[in-house]
Amino acid sequence: MPKVEVNGTSLEYVEEGTGQPVVFVHGSTGDLRMWSQQMDVFATSYRAIAVSCRHYHPNDEIPDGVDLPMPTLVDDLAALLRELNWAPAHVVGQSSGAFVCLLLGAKHPDLLRTLVLAEPPVMPLLGLGDPPKPHQLLGLLIRNPGTGVPVIRFGMTIVPTERAFARGDDERGLRTFFRGVMGHQAFAELPTARWQQARENIKPFKAQMRVGFPPFGEEDARRVGTPTLLVTGERSAPVLHRLVDRLQQLMPRAQKMEIRNASHFMHEDRPQEFNERVLAFLARN
User: Measuring CA to CA, which residue among 97, 108, 227, 207 is closest to residue 162?
Assistant: First the structure.
């Protein structure tokens, strides 16, 4: 497996095909393996590349007590695109990986051809702190109950997740998180190999959660002018749908699609529909 040194760390990646680069960026509970159902398909028309972010399998393990801020991952991705001459690239991200890609679009638009963002958890877009303060939640609930209620329900997932991690019960924390973002039915259908992948990446996941999300406001979203496809899963947590809707309203060149009968991991739940529709978007841009 090839690897490259950037910003003082080593990043491993896999690639197939030739042509314009399509770079896949995983979320906080995965690694480059989560794109296995995309690589062969995209490689028929593009140079398909899946990257494992800093400290995610199979890269060097994160030291105990070290945090993993999202801006560090953004800087790594920018350096990777430059170092390997992949820019400008089509960049596809899922969950926190989609947030990383969104931040890349705001900071380094010259590195991108297109963005495909699968449910980035851009909670700062709602004007909430990390963690949200009670008065912020109350204000949001009063201003916009349709968004405030899903946010509060999602908070009922994050708080017990963080508490479980704090007392060292990683298994319970991970299960609580997955049920919250996927729903109970989708979690029950999660393949064993995918669950094991999440368990293998528990340390960098916790290191990201300790830091939380960086600032990202409405003006930041308006400045992302890269052609963007926003993707949701029909069965995902309602708060993720609200965030995608808000991004679509703010980003000048964004469009949205929903993958039917799919969870937060829509590219794994319904890979054929995801692949076909993303490839169609890339072909238009």
Answer: 207
